[in-house]
Amino acid sequence: xxxxxxxxxxxxxxxxxxxxxxxxxxxxxxxxxxxxxxxxxxxxxxxxxxxxxxxxxxxxxxxxxxxxxxxxxxxxxxxxxxxxxxxxxxxxxxxxxxxxxxxxxxxxxxxxxxxxxxxxxxxxxxxxxxxxxxxxxxxxxxxxxxxxxxxxxxxxxxxxxxxxxxxxxxxxxxxxxxxxxxxxxxxxxxxxxxxxxxxxxxxxxxxxxxxxxxxxxxxxxxxxxxxxxxxxxxxxxxxxxxxxxxxxxxxxxxxxxxxxxxxxxxxxxxxxxxxxxxxxxxxxxxxx
Length: 288
Fold this sequence. Notes:
Elements: E1 9-12, E2 15-18, E3 23-26, E4 29-31, H1 35-46, E5 51-53, H2 54-61, H3 70-85, E6 95-98, E7 102-105, E8 110-112, H4 132-135, H5 143-166, H6 168-178, H7 184-211, H8 217-235, H9 243-246, H10 248-272, H11 274-280
Antiparallel strand pairs: 1-2, 1-8, 2-3, 3-4, 5-7, 6-7
């Protein structure tokens, strides 16, 4: 019988036996009955109308390694049951003795099933609610997509460097016309030259590493980022070298977009090489 169909109580006459609480009640009033007699009564109720042999009672209620006077203990339990029920062996209304064989519960018995289990309603998480774990998750994207956009950024920077080096004299003229201080133009020109020369091999390394899917790129880029980010932020100002063509408004807009690019690179690397980057930082792999 499935557990959900096993009776938890029995009602007979004015009595009710609660198998879960091991309690016998008469019209709602609890009666005093020790545990062992109650277990004998429960077994008889579960097989009401059937003969339950003394050996079956012994097997069910007295383990084989229990050293007791079984006959005396069983007789005592039956007497206590009859006493509390107001029953007798000579005029049985509830427990009938079958000489030398066992006992039978002869009264009408109503089995009471378990009460329906109340399952607490669990609130479904709000799809719009963001947990701290969700906030830290990276966007779901394939590694190839992240690597592709990272490579495009490297190519963009290489074009910036080569175009600036090709027009270095023109840049000096533009800066000189825009800045009144005579010493600023050569200084800015030197900064453009130096950062471009140093950044070109770095960009070529990053482009080849992502192209060949070098698995250590996540760790390498994390180490390069503190030095590379200031260079990228400096080059984010490059649209102002073309403000005479773009206008001040577009120059500001382009600069604002380029200021985000260094951090976009870092995010793309974490998306493409999340496990390697996380291990190098001593953290669990990032969700992808």
